[in-house]
Amino acid sequence: MLYQSMQGISIASAITVVLLIWLGTLRNPFTAAYLFIKELLTSRKFLLLFCIMVCILLINKYELQIENSFNYHKDFTPWVFSMEGHFVKTLQDFFHSSYITPVSVFFYVIVFQSLLIASVGVYVSDQNKVFVLATCFAIIINYTVAIPFYLFFPVNEVWSYPPSGVSFLMLDVFPNFEREYRPLSGLDNCFPSLHTSISVTMMVLGLRSGNRRFGIMTTISAIVIVFSIFYLGIHWLTDMIAGTILGLLASNLGILFAKLALRGKEGSMLQQRSKIYDSL
Question: What are the UniProt keywords, alphabetically (predicted)?
């Protein structure tokens, strides 16, 4: 029943966000919502950055419509397959299990998007302003870099390319995926893998934030999500490598931009805190 509609997924995602914030802070997760709203109302820098992030996410939402308006019909999938062959099929066949599939779908569909929201909630609750801003900067960088590739370097999902021999295991648990979720994720929006880049970004930020508990949570999530993109038959190895590079770039640039945005007294305090985190 969880994967019968987007309404069910939205409810599950909301519950997951609350649990992630609670586990990441061991404090009332609803306090994070109050602090988030307070930060929006009192910090023009955060408000502006948050609005930019929302805009880039909206552009990504309508990317498929933009793509369909182009008279551009390239397909780089055969080229990718010629480089890496049956890597995904070999991994999928080796690990295929009725127990692993629902866990992979849960992390791919629900935990992935929940981490985006929970990360901001955790850092707001920790009053860690630099990582609140760094998360927003990093998300903007990820999508800004990925969208042009989706428009001009289309690569189809592994399962949809017959020579790959890969099965789309997502449908075993989420039979309505093509109708309910596909409008949010184009079939040829593979390179780079945003599931990888965002997960790696959240992991790096979590590990560098000073919140060890949340760092462990984001690391485990990133590992499972990256495994899931292969196991479910969605992404190529090439997508994952590009996504990892993008995630590392976005997270480190996000921290750098956040430090620059918080110059002065806050910036000085941030540099001292960052040195302590980096030494851990």
Answer: Membrane, Transmembrane, Transmembrane helix
Question: In 10 A of CB 269, how many CB atoms?
Answer: 13
DSSP string computed for 27-44: S-HHHHHHHHHHHHHH-H
Q: Which two tokens stand for residue 173?
A: 């648990």
Domain count, the chain: 1
- Tell whether pTM > 0.85: yes
Please give the Cα distance from 29 to 238 (Å, whole number). Answer: 37
Q: For residue range 173-195, list pLDDT tens digits in order.
A: 999 898 888 877 889 999 999 99
What's the confidence (pLDDT) of residue 73? Answer: 80
Structural domain harbouring 81: 6-61+76-279
Indicate whether 83 belongs to any domain. yes
Residues 6+ apart with CB under 8 A from 104: 169, 224, 227, 228, 231, 232
Query: What CATH number does residue 248 fall under?
Result: 1.20.144
DSSP 2: T
